[in-house]
Design a protein that fits this description.
The protein is α+β, with helices and mostly antiparallel strands. About 25% of the residues lie in helices and about 30% in strands.
């Protein structure tokens, strides 16, 4: 298997920054927000269902394509909604592309591949869609010398 595709239902989410909490004793503690933890677990579950135990080799060079579909705001006019679904108007709102890539790639560490450092090509796109979701495709990149 040289590529795996899967979808993540729901609106796209980005990786949230770790939070630091200071205790009364002066010590500080860092934690990952619950929403990030839950989304990373959803990404892992969807990958496991599609991959059926497959993992890319530890020395593989990988490419990842991520396409996120944002919900169309109901408050927009029918014409604007139509332009959004046709791709004429694309989402320029949060989460940012880099945070979407980060949450998905981090979630797949030690599951789809040894480490996301193996990813040498990234393609990220944002669209509006009737059904909010994120499509992910991971594939091996052949080593070519030019």
């Amino acid at each position: 298997m040289s590529s795996i595709s899967f979808s993540i239902p729901g609106p796209p989410q980005g990786k949230a920054r770790p939070r630091v909490v200071r205790a009364k004793n002066g010590m500080s503690m860092t934690y990952t927000p619950d929403k990030t933890v839950a989304y990373e677990e959803l990404v892992r579950l969807r990958y496991k269902a599609a991959a059926q135990g497959f993992r890319f080799p530890d020395d593989a060079q990988l490419a990842i394509q991520i396409t996120s579909f944002y919900p169309v705001p109901k408050s927009k006019s029918k014409r604007v909604q139509s332009d959004m679904l046709a791709g004429v108007i694309r989402p320029t709102k949060k989460p940012d592309c880099d945070n979407i890539v980060k949450i998905i790639c981090d979630a797949l560490n030690e599951l789809a591949y040894k480490d996301d450092a193996q990813i040498v090509v990234t393609q990220m796109s944002k669209y509006y869609g009737k059904v909010p979701k994120t499509l992910v495709k991971i594939m091996e990149v052949s080593a070519k010398c030019t």
